[in-house]
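The step that takes the researchers longest sounds almost clerical: writing a folded protein down as plain text. The outcome of that step, for a single protein, is printed below.
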Amino acid sequence: MTGSEETPSFRLAYVPGVTPAKWARIWNERLPDIPLTLLQVPAAETDGLLRAGGADAAFVRLPVDRTFFSAIPLYTETTVVVVPKDHLFTAGEEVTLADLAEEVLFHPLDDVFDWDTPPGEPAFERPATTEDAIELVAAGVGLLVVPQSLARLYHRKDLTYRTLTDGPQSSIALSWPEEATTDLVEDFIGIVRGRTVNSTRGRSTAAEPKKQAKRPEPGRHQSGAGKSRSGGAAKTSGRGTRGRSGSSGKGSGKPRRKS
């Protein structure tokens, strides 16, 4: 463990679209004396923030540099196309990349997808942010492909979205510098993985209950517990009763095969 005593709080970064409220609530219940600081960070900046020690862990969008970071993949998001409510695509529930071929598609500078070649017709410019691109979609000059969480984050009453069935997808993971796996990081890993308070994994270093030696049965001396009256080993006497015709209950031997 690396110096959790020096950390007055646990700093958790998260990219837009991730909602850490559930995990934060559990943290506050289990570790009320250690404040949890939440930091929303653009997806492109989480790598630098973690490397610089600006956060202890972060919910990030994959991929990450696995030579430096540890990561626990959590879930993969549905990809959607954001469109005006009166757009032709709203007549159906799903859209394909082929459907976008003749549509103007915005490709913001903070796009979370690593497109080889973005589909559709290129827009007149690349918006600086996804939020800016949403505003342009509302103006009716193009469409936008994003993870569903971002479509919900930047929701507008005049916009809706439809599932893109064959587009790229974005996956969310919990990540942290491998060399900085502190006690508090282990605590948070346990919360994310759904471990109970009494789990022996993670930071919970409480030893497992020791197996206690069996106490001798009342009325029998411990020194004589291992032998039968005939002087043989007690454990063999138990086996010998299984094949007797007079035995009853579950201790009977195997049934004979019918000839």
